[in-house]
Amino acid sequence: MFTSNISLLDQTFPNPMGAFEYLSVLISIILALGMTRVLAGVGEMLQAGSRRHIYWVHAIWIVNLFLYLVVAWWIFYRWRNQQPWTFFLFIFVLISPTILYLASLLLFPREGDVDLAVDYKTHYYANHRAFFILFALFTPVDLVDSLLKGVPHFLQLGPQYVVSTLLYFAGLMTAAITRKERYHQFYAIFFFAQTVIISFAIFHTLV
After folding, report:
1. So where are the chain's domains?
2. Which of 1, 3, 51, 181 has its CA 20 to 30 A from that of 45?
3. What's this model's pTM, rounded to 2 decimal places?
């Protein structure tokens, strides 16, 4: 009788939310806000029609950033076994999604200006320095993030992870420094290819 009552209580009151599930809510919200801003920006581009002058390099960076937001959300699950969680670790883990969210704001004109005529090429080069410096900050943060998950986890990522991280940082910082259009054309495509390759080579599984 006592055992059956416990079983009934377990069914009525499920297990409380774990630390990872609780903290992941805020992480997910920030990443979702970044995705929402990217999608809203694309929607504004489509609604404005001829009032918006599309620049293909900018368009590729829209894809690049959205892809990076998806990958960041995907790999956050690898924190699921972290015990114990501390406030300072949680604040650190918040840095990566916050960087991507701020980058999404820089990639588009102010939200709501649908009727405003915008040349995305002009907007891109007017904001490229802040956008790429901010994006470049993601790489050292991600490197520390991987180390904090434990040395075995870091080693499991392999040398390709370190090489890729260095390439990301060097490429993004160069994009922040230079206004040479040919470099930006090349690097937009290179970044996309690198992200796709690394995602399938290292982060193709959820665990």
Report:
1. 18-201
2. 181
3. 0.85
